[in-house]
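Researcher: We're teaching a course module on how sequence relates to structure. For the next exercise, students receive a sequence and then see the predicted structure as tokens, so they can try to spot secondary structure elements on their own. Here is the exercise chain.
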Amino acid sequence: ESEKKGIQLLNTQIEAAVRSLDILSKYPFLYNRAVMGSGKTYSVADLLSKKTPKNILFITVKNALDCEIYNEPCKIAGIKTIELYKSKNSKNSTPGIINYEKLTGTKTLGELSHGLLTRTQEKITTVNELNGKEKIKIVTKYFATERLKNLAAEGLAVVFDEAHKFKSDKTQRYDAIKVIIDTVLEAAKNQRDGNNQDVKKNNSYVIFLSGTPGNKENTPAFARLIGIIESETLFSNSFGKLNFNIPGKSGLKEMYDYCAKMDNGKYKNEADEIWALVEFRNTVTKDFVLDVFFQFYCDIFMNAISVSMPEPEIAVPLDCKNGMYML
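Model: And here is the predicted structure for the students to work with:
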């Protein structure tokens, strides 16, 4: 064993590894939803060593700059992350493993220390229609730096750990992550549509890791995060008339359209069956539409872009108390 190079996957992980490569040949995103302890980090490091982008970045909830849970798998797999700046004027750098707090730069304006995003704030004044009082709101926005755009153009894989924590699209974390993802996916589209085979081989993509089941209420926000829907609401039901075709209010129809086209129409019949639940109704409730959206999300979308692995063997009775195993 000591003479072998790289990560040696267990038999229980090989199937997921093969499927991961297949998914990334079709889509610029992958969701690994294996339970805790099954080896997600090592399997992803192995995947990155096989589908080698020029640049690699890990984003995590942990203080990972000195966290061996990421450094060790990368070292064994023989992959190297990008270098992040300690400050925009510093020549020193740190490995491309960053936590979400550092990513958003909650107290910094301008280019953030890692060199990937620029953070701005502006005051917006609104007037209450009832009492005429003015209210000032501070709006924070993020923009991709030229460095991030160049990294993505060269080929950039971004791994988001604990992806179930993207709970709300009303947070600065969500906004910063969306800029990262939008930049990577735009580069991926250009790479996949082009004729340069070297670029196609080293194209950009994003990987999400989480063994925690997602919350149904948060699935539309995640769908917007990766650009498969754009509408802020799933439908319009004004004046007693149901409408799924109003710009900005047609998230459910956008989800149906996307799912129906996945894998060259492989899921079209299944998507039609789900869409029939709402197509001929005159009125619906928000909860019902969300249920239908969630069915698209689970039965088709996640089924097409996610992998899992068997849960680890329970070594001692104490492990049974672990909430993840119970779940």
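Model: If you want an answer key for the exercise: The two ends are 35 Å apart (CA to CA). The longest strand covers residues 117-127.
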